[in-house]
Amino acid sequence: MQLHTRTWGEGDRLALLIHGIMADHRTWRRVGPALAARGYRVIAVDLRGHGASGRGAYTAEILADDVVETLPAGADLAIGHSLGGLTLSLAVDRLRPRRAVFSDPAWHLATAEGFSPAVFAEFKGATRERIAAMNPRWEAADVDIELETLGAWDEASASGLAALSGVDLLPAGPVVPSLVQLADPSFLIDTAKAAVLAERGFEVRTVKGAGHTIHRDDFDAFMTSLEGWI
């Protein structure tokens, strides 16, 4: 599937952005322009079932295939958040960016009820007040965008997560030089898993005090955490 994309900038370097579940390219509203200001041409996708991209069957492998079909190989940088981090890890051997950043990646979904597809699907009807209460550090514009992206999201895509519940999805090692950027605390990558990733050759950095969507929760700290990688 050819995915819908949004581009910022006309720089000589190329950066790719892959969002998490329930979001779309609009989640990168500050990151895209910031990277463009650093000399990148930035391409952000809407994953299958999200934003303006098409609908269809949903598995992590299919999402990765779509990204490979849509985005150019050999970019200077690729960043994937949450489900986008999982998607990037399943596509990185084909995309072959020079550097990869996995922002609080979905490499381990616990078997707790909070990760069931039904709970994700129920969140599609979340109110502005609920979103703001869950994300007290977000700017109002990000709450507005979350409402819009939830409206555009196909909640059936959450069913693709069911098979991943409780599965260890930590990569065996980095295919390209890779940074794992973690929330504080991360509900996806705990301290023990972070240590495993470091042993396997990933650089691991925690953004102190930041929630799961680091780039919306603390944009400045998100960008600082990328120093040396962008």
UniProtKB/TrEMBL annotation:
User: Where along the sequence do coiled-coil regions lie?
Assistant: none
Under Gene Ontology molecular function, one entry of this record is: hydrolase activity
Q: Which UniProt keywords apply?
A: Hydrolase
Pfam families xref list: Abhydrolase_6 (PF12697)
Ranges for domain AB hydrolase-1 come to: 16-222
Chain segments annotated as transmembrane: none
SUPFAM superfamilies recorded: alpha/beta-Hydrolases
State the InterPro entries in the record. AB_hydrolase_1 (IPR000073), AB_hydrolase_fold (IPR029058)
- Say yes or no: keyword Transmembrane present: no
Entries under PANTHER family matching the protein: EPOXIDE HYDROLASE
Please report the name of this protein according to its UniProt entry.
Alpha/beta fold hydrolase
Supply the source organism for this entry.
Streptomyces albidochromogenes
Classification from the root reads: Bacteria, Bacillati, Actinomycetota, Actinomycetes, Kitasatosporales
